[in-house]
Amino acid sequence: MIKRCFLSPLALYLCALFPLLTIAQQPGSPNAAQPQQTPQGMGVSTGTALVSTTRRTVGVVDAKAPKVFEDVTARTALASFKHHSGSAQKDYIVETTSGGVALFDYDNDGLPDIYLLNGSTMAAERGKEKPPRAALYRNLGNWKFEDVTEKAGVANERWGMGVTVGDYDNDGFADIYVGNFGVSRLYRNNGNGTFTDVAAKLGVARKGWSTGASFGDYDGDGRLDLFVPGYVELDMNNLPPSPADAVKPGQIAQNFCQFRGVPVMCGPRGLKGETDTLYHQKADGTFEDVSDKSGVNDSTRYYGFTSVWVRVNEDNLLDLIVVNDSTPKQLYINKGDGTFEEVGYPSGVALNENGREQAGMGLATGDYDNDGLVDFHITNFSDDSNTLYHNDGEGNFTDVTFQAGLGEPTIPFLGWGTEFLDFDADGWKDVIVANGHVYPAVDKQQWGTSYAQQLLLFRNTPNPDPKQAERGIRKFERVGAAPGSGLADAWASRGLAVCDLDGDGRLDVVVNNMDSAPTLLRNTTPAQNHWLRLRLVGDPARKSPRDATGATVYVTTGKLRQRADVISGGSYSSQSDPCLFFGLGAATKIDRLEVKWPNGSTEVFDVPAVDKSLTLTEGKGVKQ
Ligand SMILES: [Ca+2]
Ligand SMILES: [Ca+2]
Ligand SMILES: [Ca+2]
Ligand SMILES: [Ca+2]
C-alpha cells in the first residue's frame, strides 16, 4: 500500500518535509526511532481531497449482466469461518494485511481442498487471549466441505499472512508453508490427513514478518527451494503511533501518519523494511539460507508482499519476481550458477510507465495474449491503477495497462489478490481482482472509494482497434456485476485463489476477507466451452520435483497455442490450484500437448479426449 502525496506542488513539498518534522519534534519519544530508518520513508500523505459523488467501488450493478459467479458461501461450512485481524479501526499496519488462501488437494482424492489463513490480535500476541485459528476444509464434492483443521493440525494460531504449497520432500503429498508475522511454519503433509510443523527442524522457521512465499527448484537438483519475502520490521514493544493516539488530549502531534489529512495507521513508508530470504534445500532435506550468496537478499529492504518463481525468459531456468509494497518490484534472472541478476529497472517491471513506484500488493502470472511468454498483472493502491506488464521477450516488459483497458476502471480500487483465469473457457485468460481498503476511515469521507469493495472481473477480448488487433494487443472489458451475484457484493478482501472446485470445467474462486467470512464463488457462466485440466507429476530421479512446480505446458488447438505454468504462491500471498486449466473454446481435439518439465526436458503427450481432468507423469504418458 502506498500513501501518496496528492496534487499540488505544496502538498508534495509538505510530504517530503513531514517525516523530518516528525523526527525533529519528538526527539526523546519512543517513537522517534521509527520514521528515520529508511531513506524512502515518507510516512505522511496529505493534499486536497478529490470530491466524488459516488463511491465507485461498492453497489455498482448491471441488471443486464450475466450471472458469472454465485456466492455459495452461506450454503457451506466455510460460512462459519471468521477471519479476525486486530482492531476494527486498524491502529497498526500489522492489522491490515492478513491473509492468504490456498486451494490444493491435500489428500489426493482428486478434489481440491481449501486452506484459509487467519489473523491475530495485539492481545493474543501478548498472550492475553486465544488467537484466531486458520482452517482447512476438505472438499467432499458437490459443494460440501468438512472442517478438518483439528485432525490435520494446521490451525497455525499465529498472525497468518501468506500461504504457499509445494511437495518439498517429493513424497507425493503437498506440504504447506505459512508466512507469519512472528515465526513461520512448514507443515509437512504426513499423507494420512495430518500435518507436522517441521519448520524449525528443517531450518525454515523464518522470524519477523513473512508474506507471500514461493517454492521453486532454482538450481535444478530436483528438490524444491523456498523464497520468502519480508515486509516490515515491526517491534511490538515499540509500535508507531496509532490513529487513536492522535485524538487523545494533548497527543495531536503524536501522529503524522495521515491519509488526506485524516490520521491513519503508520506504514509501510517511514517504517524499516525487512530483507528477503532464499532457502536452498540440501540433499538431506534440510534448508540453508543462501540469500546473501545468491543475490536475492534484498539489502534495499523493500516491503515484500508476493513472490513467484517462473520462467521469464527463454532458457530453462526459474526466475523470480518479487512484488513490493510502495517500492520498486524486483525481477531476478537466474544465471544458472546459483546466483541471480536483479533486472527490475532494465526489464521495465520495477516501475509503471510513468516511472513511478506503485503499491504492489498481488501478482497474477500468466500468458494472457497467448504468445508463449508469461506476463504479469500487479495490484495497487486506490487512486492508482493496477498494472499489466506485457512480456516482449528477451527479458523486456512493457506497461500496457491503459491500452489493455485495465487502467481507468481499477483506479478507485485498492487491489490485493489477482489471477489470470479463463472463466469462460474460450482459450483467453481473463483477469480477476479482490479489492478492499486498508483504512476504515475512507467510509467516513466521500473520496470515491470505500473500505469494503467489489471484486473486479475483466474479460479478455479481441482488440476493437484493427491495427492493435493485428499486433496481437488484447483488450480487457469489465464484466458487469449482476444484481445478487458474487460480483455485486463487497468485502475488505485480501487473498484470492482459483480452481475448479466441482470439476465442471468452470473455474471457481475463493477469497479470504478481512474480519469476515470468506467468499466462495461458484462459476455459473453460461458459456459452454471445452476444457482440459492437467495434474503434472515430475520424476525426482530425473531432477524434476515430484509436484512439477516450475513446469510449463503448451496446448495447441488449431491456431491457438496456450501456455500455463505450475506455480507455487502468487495472487496476494495465496495459492491457486497447482493443476493447470485450459479453456479450449469450441475445440474438441488437442492438436499438440507439450510439457517442458522442470529439468528442462520436453515431452509430448497424446491426449485422447477433452473435458477431462488428466494426470501427466514425466516419462510415463497420460493417465485418466
Ligand atoms: Ca481433496
Ligand atoms: Ca510432501
Ligand atoms: Ca533445489
Ligand atoms: Ca476467457
Structural description of this entry:
It is a single chain. This protein is mostly beta strands. It is built from eight helices and 41 strands. Strands 6, 7, 8, 9 and 10 form a five-stranded antiparallel sheet that branches. The chain has a four-stranded antiparallel sheet with strand order 1-33-32-31, with no helix packed on it. A four-stranded antiparallel sheet has the order 2-3-4-5. The model is unreliable at 2-46 (pLDDT under 50). The structure holds calcium ion (4 copies). One calcium ion binds next to loops.
Form type: globular
Strand content: 25-35%
- Total strands: the figure is 41
Query: What is the gyration radius calculated from CA atoms?
Result: 23 Å
Ligands (ions, cofactors included): calcium ion
**What low-confidence regions span 5 or more consecutive residues with pLDDT below 50?**
2-46
Instruction: Output the number of helix runs.
Output: 8
Described by its quaternary structure, the protein is single chain
Structural class comes to mainly beta
- Overall mean pLDDT: 91
Estimate the helix proportion, in percent. Answer: under 10%
Major sheet summary line: 5 strands, antiparallel
The span between the termini is: 45 Å
Give a quick summary of the entry.
With 624 residues, this protein is mainly beta.
Task: Throw out a few tags for this protein.
single chain, mainly beta, 8 helices, binds calcium ion
